[in-house]
Structures are given as structure tokens and as C-alpha cells.
Request: fold
Amino acid sequence: MKQEILVKASDLFLDLGFKSVTMDDIAGEMGVSKKTIYSHFENKTKLVEA
Reply:
């Protein structure tokens, strides 16, 4: 799941820009809850760093 989040987040960041993409956007695109994403990444910055 962590790898899937990284792939989807990377796609969205490249397409829309870091500031435009929210954790809600990533969760919605993946069909999971924000809680799922936050269980792997503390915040959006940590997600980008990964």
C-alpha cells in the first residue's frame, strides 16, 4: 500500500503541483481514507520526502 500511495501521489504532484494536491485528493484518487494514508505517512511533507 505504501508504494501505491507513493506512485499515485507522485503522479498527482507532477500533474497538479505540490501545493495544489491535498491528502484528500490522494485518498479520493485511490479510493481509500485519509486515515490509510496517514498510517503510512505522518504528513504531506513526509510523503514527498519518501
